[in-house]
Design brief:
Elements lengths: L1 H27 L2 E2 L8 E2 L2 E4 L3 H14 L3 E4 L15 E4 L6 E5 L4 E4 L5 H8 L17 H6 L18 E5 L5 E5 L5
Parallel strand pairs: 3-5, 4-5
Antiparallel strand pairs: 1-2, 6-7, 8-9
Amino acid sequence: MKKMFSILLFVYFILFASSVSLYRTQTTNPTVVDKSRLFPVKIKDVVPAGGQGKLQYLVTKAKSTGDKISIAGMQHSQGGHTYYPNAIMVDMKKYNKILELDVVGKTIRVQSGATWDDIQRKINPHGLAIKVMQSQNIFTVGGSLSVNVHGRDIRNGALIDTVESFRLLNANGEIINVNRTENA
């Protein structure tokens, strides 16, 4: 009886240790999917964007450790092309501030995690509307720029035609200005 109890106790501890190990693997290596749910990908970690300094730190740290980075906003891209296996996914949803609205000049400056809905809510009280965006307002500005959306009214061209400039965080952790004359 004592031997049987020892064996059961040993099996219990093995199962317990295995479940703890499995839990740690699942929580430290989450699986992410886009809206299509066709290509689940195990990644290393999900990190919220935070501010500019945190983003620069993430990029320079990843470069020094050899980690890959993928970026996600509302995660509506389809086909699995926004995730990289065992990469660090930077969740841009909270990097969504509207930084400046020039009603007279009809320009707005936003962080890349801002959605078209965020912009509409800010500009509509001023009698303004967005010239080019996707057919839904749930997408982020950064995600829309990254896939060069065109909108429904082809007379207004692609989204990039309405963008005066943007700032780009490059792989060295430097932020550069991009416009039609500087870093075009």
